Amino acid sequence: MKLILASASPRRAEVLRAAAIGFEALPTETDETRRPQESVETMTLRLAEDKARAAVARSAPVGEPTIVIGADTAVEIRGEVFGKPGSAPAAVVMLRKLSGRTHRVVTGLVVIRLPDGAGRFELETTAVRFASITTREIEQYAASGEPLDKAGAYAIQGIGGRFVEQIDGCYFNVVGLPLARLYRILKELGWQPDP
């Protein structure tokens, strides 16, 4: 069964490769703007579905069964939602707010099987505790460039991991793809891992 990952994220791709799950990446263009009063859960599920449906529309109909995976991850702290900062100054602002506090990493996961359109819409949430970090550490990290395309302005699997004191939940969710949940869904939809 063919798997399509509706994402350009190298981190999501690496999670799948490391788990020996073969896939084809099919990046999609999606407006990731949060709607007014939209919860982080609603937003991430909506964006994951938008990505998955865009990939379904772009997939040429083929005879073989296909599963399309869409995911979107955001960070939430005290009702404020952080996506990707886009600039070093924006990353500094986010990191200051995360310093010394616990935040939630929420991933919306939408998996659609073709040709019948069966699907799963699920959420994964992980609590992450950040150490108190100094202004100098924040500025140096923001200047490294690593935070710029990461939800919440950090990469737990990279330099940003040095600031993470504790997690409660799925580590891979913080990377951007809740692996155990996805694996369960894939099996439920009829996918079998290669021997």
Can you describe this structure?
- This protein is α/β, with parallel strands linked by helices and 195 residues long.
- 32% of the residues lie in helices and 26% in strands.
- The protein has a single domain (2-188), classed as Alpha-Beta Complex (Maf protein).
- The chain contains six helices and seven strands.
- It has helices spanning 10-18, 40-58, 88-98, 135-143, 171-175, 179-188, and strands at residues 2-5, 24-25, 66-77, 80-82, 102-114, 119-130, 164-168.
- Helix 3 packs antiparallel against helix 4.
- Strands 1, 2, 3, 4, 5, 6 and 7 form a seven-stranded mixed sheet that branches.
- 37% of the residues are buried.
- The longest helix is centred in the first third of the chain and has 19 residues, at 40-58.
- The model has no long low-confidence stretch (mean pLDDT 94).
- It starts with a strand and ends in a 7-residue tail after the last helix.
Span of the ends, CA to CA: 13 Å
CATH architecture: Alpha-Beta Complex
Helices and strands: which structural class?
alpha/beta
What is the average per-residue confidence, as pLDDT, rounded to a whole number?
Answer: 94
Domains, number:
1
Shape: elongated
Tell me the strand percentage band.
Answer: 25-35%
Unreliable segments of 5+ consecutive residues? none
Rg, Cα atoms, Å: 17 Å
Order of helices and strands: EHEHEEHEEHEHH
CATH class reads Alpha Beta
Got a strand count? 7
CATH topology: Maf protein
Which bin fits the share of residues in helices?
A: 25-40%
Biggest sheet record: 7 strands, mixed
Total of helices:
6
